[in-house]
Amino acid sequence: MDDRLFVFDTTLRDGEQVPGCQLNTVEKIQVAKALEQLGVDVIEAGFPISSPGDFNSVIEISKAVTWPTICALTRAVEKDIDCAAEALQYAKHKRIHTGIGTSDLHIKYKFNSTQDEILERAAAAVRYAKQYVEDVEFYAEDAGRTDNEYLARVVEAVIKAGATVINIPDTTGYCLPEEYGAKIKYLMEHVSNVDKAIISTHCHNDLGMATANTFQGVLNGARQVEVTVNGIGERAGNTSLEEIAMILKCHKGLGIDTNINTEKICPISRLVSSLMNMPVQPNKAIVGRNAFAHSSGIHQDGVLKNVQTYEIINPKDVGLDDNSIVLTARSGRAALKYRLHVNGIEVDDESKLDNLYKKFLELADKKKEVSDADILALAGANSAETNNIKLDYLQVTTGKGVKSVASIGLNISGQHFEEASSGNGPVDAAIKALKRIIRKEMTLKEFTIQAIDKGSDDVGKVHMQVEYNGHIYYGFGANTDIVTASVEAYVDCINKFRV
Ligand code: KIV
Ligand code: ZN
Q1: Where do the segments described as Regulatory domain lie (predicted)?
Q2: How close is the Cα of 3 to the center of ligand 2, in Å?
Q3: Which of 58, 78, 175, 238 has a 20 to 30 A CA-CA distance from 88?
Q4: Is the pLDDT of residue 329 over 90?
């Protein structure tokens, strides 16, 4: 029997902390359900005390998901733990994840405290959480830079206080693989009650070693890994779920297995990338666009003779389908539904499917072939349907030697408004016209336009950041017309304004 490695997914907590990647509750539920299908053991659903949005998401994810344990993060603070326990009330399997910084730097500068005091606070937090739930995970923040002897004392104390899982985060991504592996080994050998808990890895990728560090942790006795889809996360990100899952699948001889249904890896990767507006780098291991593309003549020749010459993973094992259903203007609803499903989006509501299908036909009329990226962009844009402010129409005159002029129509809560303006280009003119309707002090902070595939008939994706009232809001638009996509992204930002 293989040794079981538990997969703790923190895409919706550590992953979601990335600026611009915030999801609303409906989107989080969509990701949580996909994570359940993928077979993760634990979903870290949020940090409930941090915001009402996070609190609500933990509640709704708890209701929506059955099998995985739902975990909520806290500091080693009683009111955080009370709040997490309340947010977890509907979870079928629940875990509180509490902890405190244990490195000298954290103890001195964050807490102005001492090692003994921190050890006592750590144990007290675990005891406090235990009155609410049986399953309590403790994290020793900055464990990567914590002295091993002190770390072992903390781990022993929190296990004695009832912790069931001990998280050893390399919070700053500083550790070398051997160093991190040796840290886990040290704990396995020096913590007298270590057999009463599971040791967990939680590695950040600042030096590009998150996966290597996690893997060394597992080889030295950790039996839970904390990971995110596509390796998203603060700064350079967290350990990639898909990399760890495929390392263990490819190296079966290690005798360590996860519950991950690897065929769901690519669909969930695309889903997370599209919902979070976070493109995956093309050469990213396992899920990058080029991960299975052989372009050099020698490789192509080898692969055609025997695929194993240059391929260690069968693309089908990670859910890369053969694209046998291609979407064109003649495709029906069922084909669209199938490709959405392949991309991790389930549309069971007929009216939603009708709506998407209408938009798909409009796009298919403009493009010969509609790609997966196009329909993901459509599905993303479709989630804006319920917004208060909608773009009714946009007309732009532009070109060389003429001043750009735009007129715009907005529907605001059912009422129609129109304005026009000139500008130094079509986007500038359109946004100036929009600002004449929405009379708010708002400033465009960031504006990126990206083509999805290639070709002049391609869909352009626009990401925007607009500052309003001291906050930055992120917006997204996708259209074959990049001026329209830009205005849609701006409108998306405005719809998110907190008044
Ligand atoms: O990186 C880290 O230390 C964390 C903890 C809060 C678990 O994310
Ligand atoms: Zn982290």
Answers
A1: 390-499
A2: 25
A3: 238
A4: no
Name all residues whose Cβ lies below 6 A of ligand 1: 14, 139, 141, 167, 169, 171, 202, 204
pTM above 0.70, yes or no: yes
The residue contributing the CA closest to ligand 1 atom 2 is 171
Q: Which residues pair with 409 in a beta bridge?
A: 393, 418
- Structure tokens that stand for 410 in this block: 């907005």
Q: Hey, what are 346's tokens?
A: 């389930």
Ligand nearest to the CA of 233: 2
Q: Which residue, judged by its Cα, is nearest atom 5 of ligand 1? A: 141
Q: Whose CA is nearest to atom 8 of ligand 1?
A: 14
Q: Contact, 88 vs 46, CB < 8 A?
A: no
Secondary structure of residue 337 in the 3-state scheme = helix
Element (H, E) at 421: strand 415-423
Helix (H), strand (E), coil (C) string for 66-103: CCCEEEEECCCCHHHHHHHHHHCCCCCCEEEEEEEECC
Q: Output the residue whose Cα is nearest ligand 1's atom 1.
A: 171
How much is the pLDDT for 454?
59
pLDDT in tens, 271-320: 999 888 888 998 999 999 888 877 677 776 777 778 888 889 999 999 98
pLDDT for 302: 77
User: What per-residue confidence (pLDDT) applies to 314?
Assistant: 92
For 98, the token pair is 């509490």
Contacts of 373-378 with CB under 8 Å at 24 or more apart are 373/274, 373/452, 373/453, 373/459, 374/452, 374/453, 374/459, 374/478, 375/327, 375/336, 375/339, 375/340, 375/343, 376/270, 376/271, 376/274, 376/343, 376/345, 377/274, 377/452, 377/459, 377/461, 377/478, 378/478
Q: Is 322 annotated as a binding residue?
A: no
**Domain residues of the chain, as ranges?**
6-275, 292-318, 324-382, 389-495
Hey, is 306 helix, strand or coil? coil
CATH 3.30.70.120 fits 389-495, yes or no: no
Atom of ligand 1 nearest to the CA of 139: 7
CA–centroid distance, residue 296 to ligand 1 (Å)? 41
Between residues 477 and 218, which one has the greater pLDDT?
218
Dist. CA 102 → ligand 1 center (Å):
12
Please check whether residue 169 is in contact with residue 143, taking contact to mean a CB–CB distance below 8 angstroms.
Answer: yes
CATH number of 6-275: 3.20.20.70
Q: Which residues pair with 365 in a beta bridge?
A: none
- For residue 99, the cross-strand partners are 139
Q: Is 343 annotated as a binding residue?
A: no
Is pLDDT above 70 for 116?
A: yes
